[in-house]
Design goal:
The chain has 12 helices and 12 strands. α1 runs parallel beside α5.
């Protein structure tokens, strides 16, 4: 499998800068103005890309949950009505595409069903993300793979056998794998960051990290362990209504995250021992 994959104009993988993704997901709560503010925050932080989620509610909402009434900020409504309320369609994604081009930031989406892939494909995305929930959906994986675009496969709530099977559905020269644990928020004890090394050893393709924890320390650790890309949810305020907000990073936090990842990259070096020019005066003074 390829150790380096081109996503848009950027290489992701061996000896490339970490590709940093701000996952907007559904943290926009169906409001295009909020989506634009989140894009602005990602641009200000220096992120490489923003990611959305696209679903067709009738296909993705389990039948037994569709008519369950839930309390929402817009009043009581059935779950399928709520999913429609927070879902963007053609018009919204056309504006997102325009706005991201204006702001010079890459965008793409996790598509949870085949019609969603077909809708997003109109915008010629640089890649697709397959959510952890979709890892066992062979038909969807084949459909996304048929676009010929790179695929990021997220591996939360999956066994190694399921991951191996999913990989067989995708082109080995266009696959990236994201280690993830599907808990929101996730405790440190369940992050299992050493899986980054395990996945690198087995699959040889770019391995990244999709985190849902509180705080930034463990995301830095993922970079040190060799994550080629990092994805964290972004929010304007962790107290906002929504299932992903508590496991998200606010704008100031994303600024720190990007800044510190770039410092870590410089500090990691190439693993080849050398005597630096800055050491030579010390060497001459201390080794007489």
């Amino acid at each position: 499998m390829a150790q380096l994959i081109k996503i848009g104009e950027q290489g992701v993988g061996y000896r490339c800068p970490v590709w940093i993704i701000a996952e907007i997901g559904i943290n926009h709560n169906g409001d295009l103005d909020i989506a634009k503010k989140l894009i602005d925050a990602a641009v200000l932080a220096g992120c490489d890309a923003v990611k959305f989620q696209k679903r067709t509610p009738e296909l993705c909402v389990p039948a037994e949950q569709a008519d369950v009434v839930r309390e929402t900020p817009w009043g009581p409504m059935t779950y399928v009505e709520y999913r429609h309320r927070v879902e963007f369609g053609q018009d919204e994604y056309s504006e997102i595409d325009r706005y991201c081009k204006e702001k010079k930031i890459t965008w793409f989406a996790s598509c949870w069903d085949e019609p969603s892939v077909d809708l997003i494909e109109q915008f010629e995305p640089v890649c697709y993300k397959m959510a952890s929930a979709s890892l066992t959906n062979d038909q969807l994986l084949h459909h996304a793979n048929s676009t010929g675009r790179p695929i990021i496969l997220s591996t939360g709530m999956s066994t190694m056998e399921e991951i191996r099977h999913a990989v067989t559905s995708l082109d080995p020269d266009r696959i990236l794998i994201a280690h993830s644990t599907s808990s929101y928020p996730c405790t440190p004890e369940e992050l299992n960051l050493r899986m980054i090394k395990t996945l690198q050893k087995e699959f040889g393709c770019p391995i990244g990290y999709s985190g849902h924890e509180v705080g930034l320390q463990t995301t830095y650790a993922a970079v040190v362990l060799g994550a080629s890309f990092v994805e964290r949810h972004i929010t304007l305020d962790r107290a906002m209504w929504g299932s992903d907000q508590a496991a998200s990073v606010e704008p100031w936090g994303f600024m720190r995250l990007v800044r510190d990842i770039r410092v870590i990259e410089r500090a990691l070096g190439d693993g080849v021992k050398k005597v630096y020019a800055s050491e030579k005066e010390v060497l001459q003074r201390l080794r007489r």
